[in-house]
Structures are given as C-alpha cells and as structure tokens.
Design brief:
The chain is mostly helical and about 180 residues long. The protein has 7 helices and 4 strands. Among the domains are: about 35 residues, no CATH class; about 80 residues, no CATH class. It is about 35% helix and about 10% strand. Keywords: Iron, Metal-binding.
C-alpha cells in the first residue's frame, strides 16, 4: 500500500514553481511544468511576418499631413496585426542600447535580488516570473519587470525612484 507523503514532501509539492532564467539556462533537466508538449511548442518554420513600419520623421517635423498619415497607418497596423515597428522616432541609439544592457543585467541577477522588486498582489509594477496563478499546467518561460512611466515633466524619475525604493540605491543607474 502506498505511504502518505511526509510533511516535508507535502511542503515541497505546495511550494510554487518559479522560473529563474539565470538558473534554468545552465540546467539539463528542467521541471516538467516548464516543458510544453510538441504540438504546443513554437513552430520553427513559421512564415515571416510583414511587420508594419511606422515612420515618425514627418510626424515629428510638425507636418499635419504626415501626422494624419502616421495616425492612419498606426490604426491599420493595430487592426490588422496588433503591433508595429516605429522608425525615425528620434530616441538616441545610445539610450536604447543602454536600456538593453540594463535589462540583461537585471535578469541575470540572482533570483533573491530580483525578488526584492517582487510584484505584490493587485499591483501592476514589479518583478514577476512563471505566472503560476494564470496557467494550470504548462508554465511560460517568462520573467517581467514592470513599472509606471510618465512623460510629465513633474515626474521625470518615476522609474529610478521605483527601483531605488524597492531594490536599493545601487540600482539607481537601472532607472
């Protein structure tokens, strides 16, 4: 007759699974909850998407016709695809490159450090992984860091302040 699980085994089963890319990337055997059936895995031979490009050069120049055209193209892209790629947006390439470096640096941190910014129930900002509450069996390979942003000149440091308040002043450069 099978033996009932011990207290230790029961506690292990109840512990939520967390996706930690910094750990899983070096493992050969992954927890089965993160392995999706073949029929649900991403297809390697998918046709390339025709991603709509939204060129903001004319819009940013103040040309009203270019602004109307950009608005029209954005609307069509949202209705047909649900996404688009913005070009000639005027954002400094170094800023974009630095953002990618800081994102990589954050997600390479040990889990205990990332969890200092753990998203709290009912909140939209913070770190989250595995989304075990949303998926019943197969879990996504996903980590996110979300925070508010405002272009309001009175709120220029929302991201920096959020990261410093939740993770410490050593994360000021991330904001």
């Amino acid at each position: 007759m099978p033996q009932p699980p011990t207290n230790h085994e029961t506690k292990e089963q109840e512990k939520p699974l967390i996706f930690d890319a910094s750990v899983f990337k070096n493992q050969v055997n992954l927890p089965t909850q993160f392995i999706w059936p073949d029929e649900e895995q991403a297809c390697l031979n998918i046709p390339e998407l025709d991603v709509p490009f939204i060129d903001l050069r004319g819009f940013l120049s103040g040309d009203p016709l270019a602004a109307m055209e950009a608005s029209k193209v954005v609307g069509e892209a949202c209705q047909k695809h649900g996404f688009f790629l913005v070009v000639n947006h005027g954002i400094d390439q170094k800023l974009i490159s630095d953002a990618h470096v800081f994102m990589d640096d954050f997600f390479e941190l040990p889990l205990f450090q990332k969890q200092r910014a753990q998203r709290k129930t009912g909140e939209h900002c913070g770190y989250a992984s595995s989304f075990t509450g949303r998926f019943s069996s197969k879990l996504p390979w996903k980590e996110t860091l979300s925070f508010q942003f405002s272009a309001d000149e009175k709120s220029p440091n929302l991201v920096r302040d959020y990261l410093c308040n939740t993770m410490g002043n050593e994360f000021q450069q991330f904001g």
